[in-house]
Fold this sequence. Notes:
The chain is mostly helical. The chain has helices spanning 9-26, 33-50, 70-75, 77-87, 91-142.
Amino acid sequence: MKIEFEININGYQEARKFKLIVDSIRQYDKLSPSLKSLVSSLQTQLKEFLDNPEFFNFGDDPNDDLSISHYHELEHPSFIRSIRRLFGPSRREIELSKQRQVLIERAEHAEISAFESLAETAEIGRERDELRGKLKQLKNETD
């Protein structure tokens, strides 16, 4: 696979974003050999493109959202835990937690309904068998 980017600031930024994606895929342990080969090839192409002398002027902007990656967070997990303790979960985490709780409640309700239906079906089956027995007994008495 051959990737190409424009040789300008837009191409440089696209290549940096793509490199973050490729690097994160590389961290996955269970890649097949063919995928590992593809990822290595992409990393090599991206490195060659980003090492282009025309990009030395661009540098990494510290305000750029790409300069703060998830790798930085992984290097300092205790720092993140400290921030979480101070500020608590984010709004998104709270919303996801609420959604998860609603889904759990729905699943529990569905499970209870299923067991109630099974019990009702078994009860109806027993009643049917009893009525068949009585019907058979009445037929025998009338004969």
